[in-house]
């Protein structure tokens, strides 16, 4: 899986109120037209609460 572009994640998750959980990240990304690869990455990150976008981006880069 190719890691989502950080700028694209920023756009997709621009309306997220952090901290938030994985389910909310997926809801927001879906609402903003995320592609299957990005949704797959978000679905594969640990089910946790993320304090900010940097934490989400970091979690996505650890997915192989």
UniProtKB/TrEMBL annotation:
Name this polypeptide is given: DUF2795 domain-containing protein
Alphabetical list of InterPro entries matching this protein: DUF2795 (IPR021527)
Annotated organism of origin: Amycolatopsis tucumanensis
Origin: domain of life: Bacteria
